């Protein structure tokens, strides 16, 4: 069965602005003088430091770990001296404990960084342990530990692994470049994940605006009878995992459910490549590709960045701002990204892009009263009623917002984008979700 031109119901067509970086090969970022490596950059329990001030560390050395199952170890991205362990803000807005390391510029690898053997010789349990020890997390979303995702309960029968190569967020081209430049590793990573979970079917979903990536992946997988490349219509939020499942497999994840409830595990393209690196090279997740882009930066780039590198270092490498000061700096893309208040925050495992907007682009539009046009309802990919959830949230009636299934919102921002009155729909729904979750935790 051909998997071509697939999509889901709802969503919006947004200007993608990927032309700024989609044709630019990945460059290695300049070596940072100092890195600030957060011990909590994933869903789950934070890590505790395994090093102390004054210790000498090497690249790939484990410097943070937790005994909790839902967590992921953290590794040094440079060789050098631990200068401090202190609390700092990270791109998610959280203030977490960070290990501050001054690089010696030598990039001396830790002895643990070595190939883990041939895939055919590794058992599923060994593959999952390699992924866990490498500290691999989801690199396109919330940062969920990958070894946990690949260990579903015994009653959840998984039949398909989907690799999310949609990258529908405007401006970002990280996954695109990885699929073009490292298609063999993405296919290898998918095969490893399929073996780890005991699945015979793997599908890589890519939006049609990445024809070079589609071609590269098809060539890399031509001898793999259990792996298919699915082409997707260019529509936002095609990369939301539940929308991806619906578009490619026609399955609907139930309200409050997870992909494993319909027999699927979804992994990001960058995460899949990281799995390949961990097995083939023994490389932990201590660096990642990040797109530095936008009309507010002089030289947009796709950079291979060491985790813990401050944003200011990357801005400098990209030539600085096009204006005296930027209109807004966003970690991620314009639809789901988080605005940053400082250039001192470090790159973390989930930082797929840094977007710099000009003052004109960042200027907010005037909010008008809702005219009940229903456009937000038409485009909502989850079939919610955004105008009502938002209204209850703005009135602080969070119980009523919950009745309207606020927790099912994926925070894609399609409703805010399409609203002619420029209502703060996504922002107020996000607030309602936080309040509802906080209330549940307090009980």
UniProtKB/TrEMBL annotation:
E.C. no: 7.-.-.-
Top EC class for this record: translocase
Chain's role: Part of a membrane-bound complex that couples electron transfer with translocation of ions across the membrane.
Keywords: 4Fe-4S, Cell membrane, Electron transport, Iron, Iron-sulfur, Membrane, Metal-binding, Repeat, Translocase, Transport
Organism whose genome encodes this protein: Thermoanaerobacter pseudethanolicus (strain ATCC 33223 / 39E)
Binding site for [4Fe-4S] cluster 1: 370, 373, 376, 419
Gene Ontology biological process terms, A to Z: electron transport chain
Gene label: rnfC
Span of domain 4Fe-4S ferredoxin-type: 360-390, 400-429
Protein name: Ion-translocating oxidoreductase complex subunit C
UniProt cofactor(s): [4Fe-4S] cluster
